[in-house]
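User:
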Amino acid sequence: MSKNLPTAGYALYWRIWFLLLILTVIMVFVDQVSLPRLALVWILVLAMLMKASLIAGYFMHLRFEKLTLAVIVGVGILATAAALFLLIAPDGIRILKLSSG
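Assistant: Predicted structure:
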């Protein structure tokens, strides 16, 4: 156990859970409001990044680990995302071209 862990018990986890719930409700609400597509995408992506950071930081306990471990996990997640994008993007572009022409 790290010496930096909070002594508040489960209260911290309930606060983070409630914050995640609020972010989810906001995301659902934003999806129902008629916003320009670009604004909608930016708001949703920012909210998803906030949620992912909260989950990784508190529920995966990366907030309480050394910076090196957090960077290793972050780089691994980004590398996986980049690989998936590079594998999926060509098919998406091909489908887009087929559907428009």
